[in-house]
């Protein structure tokens, strides 16, 4: 391939330990079936930062066979939810990474598909992490330009490849 | 014999008839003629044809002779006739009209001819055959002749040297047909291996390497069934046949490896793996650099994992070829050294992505030659240890330990493979890792103590402890000690992330030397269990004891550990159960929950042991079982936390597991105490514990009949112990005698148990006992069942004036009797089941009767092989095939809405509980089931609706052949499912929403795009609403389903 590889040997991080299911407040061991009816009555479970991180953690990096989580491009602490507003910050592996826009776009497409339309989603680079930070941020949050990008069939195909395993949510595919 | 000189009548007749008809019968008769020694007769009869001036007659004549000779059994032809035939067929090769049948005739001669004849044949073939002028089936005869000659006359052919090889190469050149190639490759391999091909290597390589790599794809309906793999294998055996091919082969390999697609790469790599040992170390050494560069590319930038794997194997072969003859002094020069140093260089940055393939290469080196393995370890391990100790590399310690643990595992596996290959030596070899044992252990132990590196260190320790003969007993103890500390912090800080990995390690250790785990880990864990239940709001404490118990139940599988566990937990159980129930109601529930958790841990361990077939389980029949009966009975009589039905339930499960594992003679002893205990007040016989007085008057079924004088009714707590009766009774073997008069006794159980059952649990327990007895003793129960079928049914169940509760109870009993009979395919079963149809119009219990069909067909935990029930193979399928048509026609018949409704419910209940292989026939063939299921979706009952959706789901997932049925209904189904995904709609539940969303996610995979294309925008829009569902689990399914629809394109 004639495409330039921006970072041929990136650092791989261990995946964040999956959030523990803290069901320890139940008095009895192992009777989840009996509490099923109560579930209906329980309070609403709001969409939180962990849930949103779960949605994007297994997106593939366009350059490597690694997920955004493994490359520490995204992390749970870089997602904030306030009311109907979602802010996602991501960190490219190198400051001159030309794939940043594509990564940002794949995050946006995933969230567009997976979050209710009531949310306003802002996707930005981590401040100081990229040499053309402002340009990329502007491009990612411009509705028209995102829509135009999604009209390009080659780009959409690349995006679909990145999103192929996004539904794994941090689990490895063998399990 | 007089007839042999002149053509016989019959031979002439045969030949003339065949010439006219070409039938098979004449050939067969001629074969008989020849095998009876009359070859000459046949030849003479053919005479005029064989020499005829007419081309087609000549062809036919020779063809007839060739066919007959080909069919003759061996050793019917004598030497002289073979010689004559050889000369004759060779002569006919010259003639363009007869060359085809002549070759056919020759192809059957090699096994029976002499060496001289063989040479004659060979020379004639070389002289007259021009392969390019012949079609592939004839060329096949040529290859068969040569193959046969090589097989039977190899020595004379070898003697011909160039006179054989050169003309053969000329013959084989340009062959394309796969069937012929298989023969050609086999011949070429023999030439390359056994003949002296030195002068012809160039030419031979031409007829071998022009086919490499094979890209053949078999045509559909190939009559010979030759696959690409057959050809690949045959060609690979040629390529690796002779060392002289090496210099020619290596550039070709490199070229194909660089340019090929993944399958070609793999084929090339496998060919290389096979060839290197043959080509020899000298060539491998000179081309090592070039080869390694190519292989490195496949390993460090792999196209896929299979190719990467193949490249690693090839690298191993290369190393073994080069270094096989090395001195065993530990000093390695040349290729392995260079490659090893290169990989270690990459490992200087252990956190980078290239470190993974580098360690894979080093691990692959471990299973090559002992000296290379030693060299690799001696360089890689100290390097990693140095990195680990480097203060600048502290952030990378996790990846360093991961790499180290890969290496440890590789060292272990290679030494295992080696000791498996050789005979088990009395003196086990020293593990390769032994020289570095102390340093490695030190690094891992220090790593395990730091939270950031715990997980990687645990992986390494698991590798160490599972290496045979590596660690000493004291070192095992040390590892257990250190790991215990980590485990303890895990539980104290309530961060149990690593506890699973720790438990895995401890289990590995306990499989080798359980005493360390028993002496160190168990006391630590048991100590952290509280003596009494923590208060209601102490969530952390409760979570901790639950985790600790989980750990205990995971660890205590081995008999030694389990006996310790039982020994330690038993006094705690007794102490908890006998806590004075004077305090408030809450405290009572807390200790009951704790008691339940303790028992559940025992149950979990025991279930694992039963699955693994441990022999020590049966031994607990004399200790644990009476203790548990005693515990529960005492509580039922005097009160205490062990009253709680859930505690009784789990105690019952433990008893069941132990009784299952008893031999039937021991079961008999147990049974003879069990039945009187519950039916005649002799409860003390099965309880241990001093404080159950024999005259305690424990009678869960208050006897209304004569004999015993009991003033008070049994309490509800006492009756709840029916579950324990069930636990002991259900696993009993059919040969165990219950009572001399089993009919009366069973009636007694039924009447007493049911008459006073006051809740669901008690009714179920009694019904299950009954079902189990009916299943195992049906042949002795004639009068009992007859009574049930007539009087009991009409009075207790069918009578509409009866009390509804009691009728329902009767129905439950009925269901279990049906099940007991049905699983053993007893003829009475259907008679009993058909009674249920009479209830369909009943206002009060009609629906219950309909739902019963599901219960009857469902598999359960009672009537199983483990419980010694008589279970026939595929009973549920058989039942479903029989009953489905009736239910389906009933559900379609709209003359009586009540009946139709009941049939529909019965149908959905049945379909939900049987394996779906049993109704795919109905699904696909009659297309009748689908509309009915869709109608069932309209029934306003959340449970039925969820059942139907789940049924549809499992059909769609597992049976792809029902697609055209789905296609017909898919758009309607999609709309219906979309309706069910709404959280705010009437009559919904999490279960319905989740299964509807799953179904929506499956449909695009099984229905053609053009069918559902119109629904796509609607689905995407509606699912956007489900993305905002109040429940997280539903949202998750909605996201996945919507993703599937986004990708659904034509």
UniProtKB/TrEMBL annotation, chain A:
Ranges for domain MIP18 family-like come to: 50-119
- Write out the GO cellular component annotations: intracellular protein-containing complex; iron-sulfur cluster assembly complex
Gene3D superfamilies xref list: 6.10.250.1280, Fe-S cluster assembly (FSCA)
According to the record, the residues making up region (Disordered) are 16-35
Which InterPro entries does the entry link to?
A: FSCA_dom_sf, MIP18, MIP18-like
Q: Which UniProt keywords apply?
A: Chromosome partition
GO terms of biological process kind: chromosome segregation; protein maturation
Question: From which domain of life does this come?
Answer: Eukaryota
Q: Which PANTHER family match?
A: CYTOSOLIC IRON-SULFUR ASSEMBLY COMPONENT 2B, CYTOSOLIC IRON-SULFUR ASSEMBLY COMPONENT 2B-RELATED
- Homology family: Belongs to the MIP18 family.
This chain's protein is named: MIP18 family-like domain-containing protein
UniProtKB/TrEMBL annotation, chain B:
Name where it mostly resides: nucleus
| Family annotation (Pfam families) | MMS19_C (PF12460), MMS19_N (PF14500)
Q: Which residues form the MMS19 N-terminal domain?
A: 43-301
Q: Does the keyword Lipid biosynthesis apply?
A: no
Localized where?
Nucleus
Coiled-coil residues are: none
Q: Name one GO biological process term.
A: iron-sulfur cluster assembly
Boundaries of every MMS19 C-terminal domain copy: 548-1004
Alphabetical GO CC annotations of the entry are: cytosolic [4Fe-4S] assembly targeting complex; nucleus
Gene3D superfamilies, from UniProt? Answer: Leucine-rich Repeat Variant
The record's listing under InterPro entries reads: ARM-like, ARM-type_fold, MMS19, MMS19_C, MMS19_N
- Answer yes or no on keyword Hydrolase: no
Task: Please state which protein family the record places this protein in.
Answer: Belongs to the MET18/MMS19 family.
- Entry protein name: MMS19 nucleotide excision repair protein
């Amino acid at each position: 391939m004639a495409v330039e590889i921006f970072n041929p040997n990136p650092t791989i991080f261990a995946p964040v330990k999956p959030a523990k299911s803290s069901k320890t407040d139940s008095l009895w061991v192992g009777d989840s079936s009996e509490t099923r009816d109560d579930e209906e009555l329980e309070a609403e479970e709001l969409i939180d930062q962990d849930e949103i991180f779960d949605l994007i953690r297994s997106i593939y990096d366009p350059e490597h066979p690694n997920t955004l989580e493994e490359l520490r491009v995204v992390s749970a602490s870089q997602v904030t939810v306030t009311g109907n507003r979602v802010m996602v910050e991501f960190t490219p592996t190198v400051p001159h990474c030309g794939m940043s826009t594509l990564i940002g776009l794949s995050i946006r497409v995933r969230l567009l598909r997976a979050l209710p339309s009531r949310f306003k989603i802002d996707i930005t680079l981590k401040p100081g992490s990229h040499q053309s930070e402002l340009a990329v941020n502007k491009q990612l949050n411009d509705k028209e330009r995102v829509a135009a990008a999604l009209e390009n069939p080659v780009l959409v195909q690349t995006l679909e490849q990145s999103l192929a395993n996004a539904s794994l949510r941090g689990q490895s595919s063998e399990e | 014999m007089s007839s042999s000189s002149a053509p016989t009548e019959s031979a002439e007749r045969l030949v003339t008839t065949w010439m006219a008809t070409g039938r098979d019968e004449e050939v067969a008769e001629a074969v008989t003629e020849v095998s009876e020694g009359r070859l000459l007769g046949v030849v003479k009869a053919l005479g005029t044809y064989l020499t005829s001036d007419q081309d087609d007659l000549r062809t036919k004549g020779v063809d007839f002779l060739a066919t007959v000779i080909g069919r003759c059994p061996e050793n019917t032809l004598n030497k002289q006739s073979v010689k004559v035939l050889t000369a004759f067929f060779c002569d006919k090769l010259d003639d363009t009209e007869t060359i085809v049948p002549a070759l056919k005739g020759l192809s059957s001669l090699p096994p029976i001819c002499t060496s001289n004849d063989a040479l004659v044949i060979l020379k004639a073939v070389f002289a007259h055959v021009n392969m390019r002028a012949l079609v592939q089936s004839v060329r096949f005869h040529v290859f068969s002749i040569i193959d046969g000659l090589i097989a039977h006359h190899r020595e004379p052919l070898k003697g011909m040297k160039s006179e054989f090889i050169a003309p053969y190469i000329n013959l084989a050149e340009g062959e394309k047909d796969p069937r012929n190639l298989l023969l050609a490759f086999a011949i070429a391999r023999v030439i390359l291996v056994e003949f002296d091909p030195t002068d012809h290597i160039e030419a031979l390589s031409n007829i071998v390497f022009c086919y490499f790599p094979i890209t053949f794809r078999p045509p559909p309906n190939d009559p010979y069934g030759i696959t690409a793999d057959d050809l690949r294998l045959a060609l690979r055996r040629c390529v690796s046949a002779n060392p002289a091919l090496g210099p020619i082969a290596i550039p070709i390999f490199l070229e194909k490896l660089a340019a090929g697609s993944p399958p070609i790469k793999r084929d090339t790599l496998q060919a290389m793996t096979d060839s290197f040992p043959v080509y020899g170390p000298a060539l491998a050494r000179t081309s090592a650099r070039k080869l390694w560069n190519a292989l490195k590319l496949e390993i460090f930038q792999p196209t896929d994992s299979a190719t990467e794997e193949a490249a690693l194997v090839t690298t191993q072969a290369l190393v073994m070829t080069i270094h096989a003859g090395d001195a065993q002094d530990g000093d390695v020069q040349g290729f392995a050294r260079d490659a090893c140093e290169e990989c270690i260089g990459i490992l200087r940055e252990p956190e980078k992505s290239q470190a993974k393939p580098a360690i894979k290469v080093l691990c692959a080196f471990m299973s090559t030659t002992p000296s290379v393995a030693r060299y690799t370890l001696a360089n890689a391990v100290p390097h990693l240890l140095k990195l680990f100790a480097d203060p600048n590399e502290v952030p990378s310690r996790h990846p360093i330990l991961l790499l180290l643990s890969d290496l440890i595992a590789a060292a272990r596996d290679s030494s295992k493979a080696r000791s498996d290959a050789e005979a088990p030596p009395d003196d086990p070899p020293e593990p390769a890792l032994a020289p570095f044992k102390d340093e490695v252990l030190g690094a891992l132990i220090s790593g395990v103590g730091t939270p950031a590196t715990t997980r990687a260190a645990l992986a390494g320790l698991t590798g160490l402890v599972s290496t045979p003969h590596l660690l000493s007993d004291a070192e095992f103890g040390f590892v257990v000690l250190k790991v215990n500390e980590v485990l303890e912090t895990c539980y104290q800080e309530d961060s149990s992330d690593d506890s699973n990995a720790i438990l895995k390690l401890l289990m590995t250790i306990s499989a080798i030397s359980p005493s360390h785990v028993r002496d160190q880990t168990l006391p630590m864990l048991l100590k952290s269990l509280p003596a009494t239940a923590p208060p209601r709001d102490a969530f952390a404490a409760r979570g901790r004891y639950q985790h600790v118990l989980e750990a205990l139940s995971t660890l205590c599988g081995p008999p030694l550990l389990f006996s310790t566990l039982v020994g330690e937990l038993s006094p705690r159980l007794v102490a908890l159960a006998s806590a004075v129930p004077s305090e408030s109601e809450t405290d009572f529930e807390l200790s009951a929950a704790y008691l339940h958790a303790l028992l559940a841990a025992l149950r979990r361990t025991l279930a694992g042991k039963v699955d693994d077939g441990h022999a020590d389980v049966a031994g607990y029949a004399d200790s644990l079982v009476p203790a548990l009966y005693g515990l529960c009975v005492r509580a039922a009589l005097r009160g205490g936390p062990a009253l709680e039905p859930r505690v009784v339930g789990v105690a019952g499960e433990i008893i069941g597991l132990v009784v299952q594992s008893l031999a039937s003679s021991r079961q008999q002893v147990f049974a003879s105490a069990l039945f009187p205990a519950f039916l005649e007040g002799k409860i003390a016989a099965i309880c241990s514990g001093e404080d159950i007085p024999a005259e305690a008057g424990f009678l869960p079924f208050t006897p209304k009949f004569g004999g015993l004088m009991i003033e008070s009714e049994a309490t509800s707590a006492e009756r709840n112990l029916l579950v324990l009766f069930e636990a002991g009774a259900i696993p009993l073997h059919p040969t165990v005698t219950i009572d001399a008069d089993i009919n009366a006794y069973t009636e007694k159980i039924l009447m007493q148990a049911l008459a006073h059952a006051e809740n669901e649990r008690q009714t179920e327990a009694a019904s299950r006992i009954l079902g189990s007895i009916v299943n195992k003793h049906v042949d002795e129960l004639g009068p009992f069942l007859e009574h049930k079928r007539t009087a009991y049914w009409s009075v207790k169940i069918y009578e509409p004036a009866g009390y509804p509760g009691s009728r329902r109870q009767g129905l439950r009993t009925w269901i279990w009797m049906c099940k007991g009979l049905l699983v053993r395919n007893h003829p009475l079963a259907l008679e009993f089941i058909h009674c249920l149809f009479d209830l369909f119009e009943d206002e009060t219990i009609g629906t219950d009767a309909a739902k019963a069909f599901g219960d009857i067909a469902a598999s359960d935990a009672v009537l199983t092989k483990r419980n010694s029930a008589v279970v026939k193979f595929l009973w549920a399928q058989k039942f479903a095939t029989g009953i489905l048509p009736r239910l389906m026609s009933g559900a379609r018949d709209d003359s009586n809405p009540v009946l139709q409704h009941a049939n529909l419910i019965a149908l959905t209940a049945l379909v939900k509980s049987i394996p779906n292989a049993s109704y795919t026939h109905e699904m696909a063939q009659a297309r009748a089931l689908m509309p009915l299921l869709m109608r069932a979706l309209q029934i306003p009952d959340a449970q039925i609706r969820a059942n139907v959706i789940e049924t549809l789901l499992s059909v769609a997932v597992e049976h792809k052949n029902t697609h055209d049925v789905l296609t017909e209904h898919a758009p309607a189904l999609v709309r219906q499912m979309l309706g069910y995904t709404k959280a705010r709609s009437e009559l919904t539940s999490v279960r319905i929403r989740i299964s509807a969303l799953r179904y929506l996610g499956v449909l695009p995979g099984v229905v053609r795009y053009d069918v559902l294309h119109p629904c796509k925008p609607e689905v995407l829009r509606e699912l956007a609403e489900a993305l905002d569902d109040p429940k997280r689990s539903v949202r998750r399914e909605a996201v996945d389903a919507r993703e599937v629809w986004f990708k659904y394109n034509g």
